[in-house]
């Protein structure tokens, strides 16, 4: 375990935003170099854990400040503006702490929340290759002598290489939900557990330093105390999926803002096109149009991000089917807008900067590569379908972790 000694305790949400802004500025300084050399951000992730930002979701009764989703989304947006890879690493940390909030026993919550307050880091092992669809888990969690044994192989395990605890989603053999689907649970394993191995084999063109590699589980023993039901989260209205999605939207919105800022910087240094008849490139009316359009997209994404986060907070205060549905739809709209803005801004920056902005030395392609890679997570085309059905007929969106 790599507990942070004397991890800072953030006192309120204003401090959380100030700490996030400061860290984001630090992370941005060497982000291009880390991306170019695929230098994993061990030091930066350590600073993130020491800052106290990983404990924002801990409930007040367990010693935290139980920050609003609106604040949490802004923290992720700020971090992504500094370095999108670093911002993605704590995503699963927060998502699997929500599993504990929804399904953990009081004793489990007390134990794991104390781990978070101490600076421990959680990562995921949930996605698999080779199954027919992504919602199927071939990884099994088998009861044995009062405890459990987990076997399987997980991919895209973001942040696992930096983590103290690995949250493994697995199927409980021979059991089904009321809907007839295999029952799932989450096993929280120490990263040092015997039979658990983490391989740094992530080779994505973007989000290069998230360490989203492979986790292999070979007869790993799990105390029953470390196993939390997962399937029952979706038996009733929930904000589990919408919160996970709003944090993804925040990452895209952060990429969009950073790309637009970079485009503005390069435009101020660029030579004007001769036909524009102006002295400075920023006075070219066609570049002004491009910058204005991109700015509208980025501003819209940021506004929808905040609206979606507020809907989630409202649903958490008074949870019912209508409120949970609104939260899901609003989070989906934010995700669609942020994905579009990140792709638009990261492409327009080259138009603003001209030919020299395409040099390998400047490494400005990282914005588009990060955006294109991250926006493949949870396809927005299906979110648009759910938004359209809700708009036309009031159809309540399905309950799952991706909406």
From TrEMBL:
Residues 246-378 form the Acyl-CoA dehydrogenase C-terminal domain. Residues 22-119 form the Acyl-CoA dehydrogenase/oxidase N-terminal domain. The keyword Methyltransferase does not apply. Keywords: Flavoprotein, Oxidoreductase. Residues 127-220 form the Acyl-CoA oxidase/dehydrogenase middle domain. NCBIfam families: sulfur_SfnB (TIGR04022). This is SfnB family sulfur acquisition oxidoreductase. It comes from Rhodococcus opacus.
């Amino acid at each position: 375990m790599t507990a942070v000694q004397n991890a800072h305790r953030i006192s309120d949400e204003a401090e959380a935003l100030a700490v996030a802004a400061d860290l984001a500025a630090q992370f941005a300084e060497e982000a291009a170099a880390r991306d170019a050399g695929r230098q994993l951000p061990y030091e930066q992730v350590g600073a993130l854990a020491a800052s106290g930002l990983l404990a924002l979701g801990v409930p007040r009764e367990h010693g935290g400040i139980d920050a609003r989703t609106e604040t949490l989304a802004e923290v992720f947006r700020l971090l992504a503006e500094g370095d999108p890879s670093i911002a993605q690493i704590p995503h699963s940390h927060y998502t699997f702490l929500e599993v504990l909030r929804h399904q953990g026993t009081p004793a489990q919550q007390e134990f794991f929340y104390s781990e978070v307050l101490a600076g421990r880091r959680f990562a995921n092992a949930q996605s698999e290759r080779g199954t027919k669809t992504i919602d199927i888990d071939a990884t099994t969690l088998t009861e044995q002598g009062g405890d459990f044994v987990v076997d399987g192989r997980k991919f895209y395990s973001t942040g696992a290489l930096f983590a103290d605890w690995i949250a493994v989603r697995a199927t409980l053999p021979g059991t089904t939900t009321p809907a007839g689907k295999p029952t799932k649970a989450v096993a929280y394993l120490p990263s040092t557990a015997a039979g658990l191995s983490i391989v740094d084999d992530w080779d994505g063109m973007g989000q290069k330093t998230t360490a989203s590699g492979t986790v292999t589980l070979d007869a790993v023993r799990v105390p029953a105390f470390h196993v939390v039901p997962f399937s029952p989260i979706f038996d009733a209205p929930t904000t589990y999926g919408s919160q996970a999605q709003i944090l993804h939207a925040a990452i895209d919105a952060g990429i969009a803002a950073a790309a637009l800022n970079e485009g503005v910087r390069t435009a101020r240094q660029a030579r004007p096109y001769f036909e524009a008849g102006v002295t400075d490139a920023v006075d070219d009316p066609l570049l002004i149009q491009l910058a204005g359009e991109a700015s509208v997209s980025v501003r819209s994404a940021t506004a929808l991000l905040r609206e979606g986060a507020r809907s989630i907070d409202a649903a958490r205060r008074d949870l019912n089917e209508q409120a949970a549905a609104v939260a899901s739809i609003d989070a989906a709209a934010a995700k669609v807008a942020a994905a579009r803005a990140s792709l638009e801004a990261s492409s327009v920056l080259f138009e603003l900067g001209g030919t020299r902005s395409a040099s390998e030395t400047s490494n400005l392609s990282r914005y588009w590569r990060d955006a294109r890679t991250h926006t493949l997570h949870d396809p927005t085309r299906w979110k648009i379908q759910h938004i359209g059905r809700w708009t036309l007929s009031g159809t309540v969106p399905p309950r799952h972790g991706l909406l």
